[in-house]
Specification:
- The chain is an alpha+beta fold and about 300 residues long.
- The protein folds into 2 domains: about 110 residues, Crystallins (Gamma-B Crystallin, domain 1); about 140 residues, no CATH class.
- The chain is about 20% helix and about 45% strand.
- α2 crosses α3 and α2 runs antiparallel to α4.
- The radius of gyration is 21 Å and the shape is globular.
- The N and C termini lie close together (about 10 Å).
- The relative contact order is 0.17.
């Protein structure tokens, strides 16, 4: 789908500008903080124009910079965001982006939409209740068998998000799950050790439904814990995360959850959106999200467009 996206520094298409895309033929087009910075538009964007030569169908997503700044390159789709829909018109002229995003945009995604697709929303509570906690219940006896010092894991907050590479293949998407947890071990530890774990999921769409693979990206523990205790807990966690049965349990849990929702049809592709895509409108301002880590939608394409 040929398209031209031009970004402007000021409202009403004035000031410095950047021609961000001349073709919109792939599912995604990412305009990064580096792209905007080279044109002097990082945190200075106020309006944009998207012109197409065919039926557009898609979204323009604008993201604010990560609140801590230095984490933005690794987690670009992390903070508040707005979604604008490319709907019934061949052009999308936005003379003024929302006041909460004006002069705050550091990343932009263009996403092409298919004619027939279905969105599966993974909110944080659902991920915690239906995926993480059942997996932890399976992990605990395996961990106790692997290391006699291990007692239990208590899951805290869970955050589901897009990752820095939203489109690795037309039929495969990546999403990340971060979870806070406490690890309880036997003596000499008298209190739980706080930790944070990051999991990277790959979801692939195919004729037989959705397949899932995942890997642990890493974990870290509270620096206030005594070094000897932290090292011991890190050793226990390393044993847990290298267990093949545990890995397959995580993959099976997410695959079962997704496939129970999908229609009985061949899937042609997939992409991922922040927030609940079922609430997106098809024209004008579609959706406003406070945090891109409040959940993600895996959108499965049911036709080859």
């Amino acid at each position: 789908m040929p398209a031209t996206l031009r970004l402007y520094e000021h409202p009403n298409f004035e000031g410095r500008s950047l021609l961000a895309s001349s073709r919109f033929s792939r599912r995604y087009r990412h305009v990064s903080i580096q792209d905007l910075g080279r044109s002097g538009l990082n945190d200075r964007l106020s309006s944009f124009r998207l012109a197409t030569r065919s039926e557009p169908r898609g979204y323009v997503l604008v993201f604010a910079e990560h609140p801590t700044g230095n984490l933005h390159e690794e987690y670009p789709y992390h903070n508040r965001f707005d979604v604008y829909s490319i709907g019934s018109s061949n052009d999308l002229d936005l003379r003024q982006i929302s006041s909460r995003m004006n002069d705050r945009v550091s990343d932009i995604l263009l996403i092409r939409r298919a004619r027939l697709e279905v969105a599966f929303f993974l909110d944080n509570e659902r991920v915690k209740r239906d995926l993480v906690e059942p997996a932890v219940r399976q992990i605990e006896p395996l961990a106790r068998a692997a290391n006699s010092r291990f007692r239990s894991i208590r899951v805290g907050q869970v955050a589901t998000r897009l990752v820095a590479r939203p489109a690795v293949a037309p039929n495969r998407v990546l999403l990340g799950i971060n979870m806070d947890f406490d690890v309880f071990v036997r003596r000499p530890v008298n209190r739980p050790v706080d930790g944070d774990l990051e999991i990277l999921f790959s979801v692939e769409a195919g004729a037989a439904g959705a397949g899932v693979a995942f890997r642990f990206r890493g974990f870290r523990f509270d620096a206030d814990a005594r070094r000897r205790v932290r090292k011991r807990v890190e050793g226990i966690m390393a044993q847990i995360l290298s267990n093949e049965r545990i890995r397959r349990s995580f993959e099976r849990s997410l695959a079962d959850e997704v496939n129970s929702f999908l229609p009985g049809t061949t899937l042609e592709g997939a992409y991922v959106l922040p927030g609940n895509a079922n609430r997106y409108r098809r024209d004008a301002t579609a959706y406003a999200g406070d945090q891109a880590t409040s959940g993600v939608s895996i959108v499965f394409v049911c036709d080859n467009v």
